[in-house]
Amino acid sequence: MAQLSAIGGSKLRIHWLKVPHCWLKRSAVLTNTTITHNTNRDVFQGLFTCSCGFAYVLYDGEKNPYEIKAFHHRVKAKGKEWEREFDILVSKGMSVKDIAKITNISNGTVLRRIREGHNYVEIGKMKKKQELKEKIRIQENADKEEWLKILDKFPNYSRSELHDKNQSLYARLARYDNKWLELNLPNSQRGKSKTSEKINHERDLNLLKKAKSILNDWSLYEKQAGKIIKRTQFTLYTRIGMDMRLKEKYPISAKYISSFIESKGDYQIRLIDQCIENHFKDDEIKKYKILAISGLRKLEPKAEKHLEEIMQVSNKKF
Question: Among 1, 157, 181, 278, which residue has the fewest nearby CB atoms (within 10 Å)?
Fold first, then answer.
């Protein structure tokens, strides 16, 4: 019997699981157990890994894997041994029905694995990569169509004025296909220094106004997102719709934004404070629980010191 370590005063006792490779007459041996916090369910969970590579998840309070409905949803990996033996069954010419019976998976799943050529992990990664490329291609085409509509609607606008019409769209096109964007922009006003400086200064003030509005409402933005969001250069400039590569043209906005960029230590402190506020108002604060719930692995010295100081004060009453 395997045992998940005590958490919150209770112990999980887990029966040995007969994993799918048991038809090979090999004993299932759990060689590794990893305990994490499931933020969606707000419970602790254990990832159990067999010596053959088979891995599954159980949640706090669950005792017997056989009693879990739709247990196949808990399986995270079947293991290389299972995959190898499955390929052997296929190569022997065994029927789909017999393979399904031996491996305890559906006929449809057996057929799908055979058609995929048994190279499941690599094929899965390739499919995801292709799906992502197709998604980007569709988005890029839609962005280009939208940009051409803006050009038709405002034929006499300058580059800066067009940029201001849809800053996020402009930034995406510059990233996807900058050559195409350049071909679909009015002639550059470079060389007309006074006019350019005036335009840049006006845009700088407009961007500053927008930056102040967004940063003043940052806590509301995090509340809507349901999590603490680190204030990095990329996050801030993306939210404002400003191209980081052009920040030298807008020094006032760039200076203001740089004052709000968050260090890793400060970000961890905010995560720790939120975790304590949400989970440890009336409980003793323990470091390993803080790390598990917040998803932090290694604390920066600044955050480490902050947590120790809070624990020294708060844990005195326990």
Answer: 1
